[in-house]
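Action item from last meeting closed. Structure (203 res):
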């Protein structure tokens, strides 16, 4: 097994599917694996240091492990069957070792959150047919992205919409905006009236 680290996310040139790029720690071996859109979002949030107010699925799973006294010792991308990569979680619970089958995308997302090592079986290298690291700009091959990508932008937009909906709800219920300048609040109320001119509940 070779220890790998995540160097970034990209898109497969043919399918436009998200790809996670791995590179060997203290080595040159690379592996690129297709992942789903939601898994790419989960990985992207960690790479870009983004935090959401509520836990996503991978955050929740890690919270459950901690609550049960278990620890993620590491993950392995260990097999390929019918063109599909397979991975495993290596858990420690007291003096008991537990190995669970999982998807590589979930394994990577959990490993990033738990700061656990990622291992890849040597025989899997060179078998992926996705976009390779040679297709990634040289400046970004070995570093975690410093600028948010499309996935984390999507997450921030969703959070902005949630906050806007919260503020709108407060105004519709007659509350004042928290720490808002009176002129800003008046303009916001005027905007809502313009957007909903026939509502029976005017502010």
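Sequence:
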């Amino acid at each position: 097994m070779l220890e790998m680290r995540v160097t970034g996310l990209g898109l497969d040139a043919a399918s436009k599917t998200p790809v996670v790029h791995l590179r060997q720690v203290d080595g040159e071996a690379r592996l690129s694996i297709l992942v789903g859109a939601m898994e790419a979002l989960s990985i992207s949030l960690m790479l870009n240091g983004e935090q959401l107010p509520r836990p996503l699925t991978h955050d929740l799973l890690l919270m459950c492990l901690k609550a049960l006294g278990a620890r993620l010792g590491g993950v392995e991308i260990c097999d390929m069957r019918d063109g599909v990569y397979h991975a495993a979680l290596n858990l420690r619970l007291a003096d008991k070792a537990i190995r669970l089958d999982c998807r590589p995308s979930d394994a990577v997302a959990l490993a990033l959150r738990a700061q656990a090592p990622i291992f890849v079986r040597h025989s899997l290298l060179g078998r992926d047919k996705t976009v390779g690291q040679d297709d990634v700009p040289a400046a970004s091959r070995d570093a975690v992205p410093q600028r948010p990508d499309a996935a984390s932008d999507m997450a921030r937009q969703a959070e902005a919409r949630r906050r806007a909906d919260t503020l709108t709800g407060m105004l519709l219920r007659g509350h004042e905006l928290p720490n808002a300048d009176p002129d800003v609040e008046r303009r916001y109320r005027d905007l809502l009236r313009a957007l909903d001119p026939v509502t029976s509940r005017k502010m």
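Note appended to the action item: Confidence is low (pLDDT under 50) at residues 130-148, 197-203.
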